[in-house]
Amino acid sequence: MNAESKVSLPTETETVPQSRRALRRILMGVIPAVVLTVGAAVYLLGGRYVGTDNAYVKADIASVSPEVSGNIHQVLVAENQLVKKGEPILVIDDTNYRIALVGAEAQLRNVVAGIESDKARYRQKEASLAIMQSNVAFAEREFKRQSTLASSNFASTAKLDEAQHAMQSARQNIALLKQEEAEILARLEGDPNIAPEKVPSYQQAYTAKLSAATYIERATLHAPFDGVVSQLPKVGDFARTAAPTFSIVSSSDVWIEANFKETDLTHMQTGQAVEIHIDTYPGRPFKGHVTSISQASGAEFSVLPAQNSTGNWIKVVQRIPVRISVDDQHDGPPLRAGMSVTADVDTGKNRLAQYSN
């Protein structure tokens, strides 16, 4: 028997394990590499969208307070009714203010009559002054004649004294008339032909009338903007000045307030697109964009902000409020303040672009 006859070929049972071992080596080497490659690609190409479910629908809410006090006379709308800007909401009893207005108007008419009376008296004093000046001239001439006659012993001393007394009295009457004229002129602001509207007493009376008329006007409360009214009072309730009477929630100016982690704001900017999902409308996405980013975290606006300078300190990731405008809110279902929202912002930069920068 030769050497070639002693070499035996591998059987089928020996070939199968070797092929399995080769396949196992390939799978153990290639699959993890593929998984790592895909994972790295997903990680590096991800991070473009940052989202949060700590977001809510917001709207302007006003607590409307009256500027006058009184009983509620009428409530012109229903609870949760949609109203337009300027629409009357309720009326406060204005009886007292209407009485005050009547009194103010009467006082104003008295003031106007007084001003016209002062003008007439001023003209009367001017006429009297002209007459008195003529009397003074006559008295001075009479005194001069009596003095000449007395010096020639043609007139008695009594006549001279009478002439002198008449002259002095005429002069004193002129001084008195001038003082009275000045007093009247002072009330007329130095202008005897002044319009009543320019006299302080008229302005004061007119202010009282205007104030009473303003109170009557403000007894009717109007909607400050388009919205839905709520917490309406009942007829007969007493409305107090500066105390909230009803609330109105804006129906036109609605936005999203999303509280993102501070680590999500690295590449967030105003104007970036946002995809919005509202829990009330599942399966109905909304489009929006970032309007503004707050300059401070929510903790900075709290009543008792954290004092991180103290020794008792734990680092906590802060939340920064981001305001998001809803682009298609007018074409979609109604958005109500307080609805829960999930917001995803497209920053436009994945992790690969971030690391390359």
Give a short overview.
The chain is 41% helix and 23% strand.
If you had to describe this structure to a student in words, what would you say it looks like?
With 357 residues, the protein is of the alpha+beta class. Among the domains are: 61-93 and 218-247, OB fold (Dihydrolipoamide Acetyltransferase, E2P); 97-215. The chain contains five helices and twelve strands. The chain has helices at 12-45, 95-151, 157-187, 200-218, 351-356, and strands at residues 49-64, 70-75, 82-83, 88-92, 220-222, 227-230, 238-239, 246-261, 273-278, 286-293, 319-326, 340-346. The strands form two sheets. The chain has a six-stranded antiparallel β-barrel. A four-stranded antiparallel β-sheet has the order 5-4-2-7. Helix 2 runs antiparallel to helix 3 (157-187) and helix 2 (95-151) runs antiparallel to helix 4. The protein is elongated, with a radius of gyration of 48 Å. The two termini are 77 Å apart.
How are the secondary structure elements laid out?
Blueprint: H1 12-45, E1 49-64, E2 70-75, E3 82-83, E4 88-92, H2 95-151, H3 157-187, H4 200-218, E5 220-222, E6 227-230, E7 238-239, E8 246-261, E9 273-278, E10 286-293, E11 319-326, E12 340-346, H5 351-356
Antiparallel strand pairs: 1-8, 1-12, 2-4, 2-7, 3-6, 4-5, 6-8, 8-11, 9-10, 9-12, 10-11
Helix pairs in contact: 2-3, 2-4
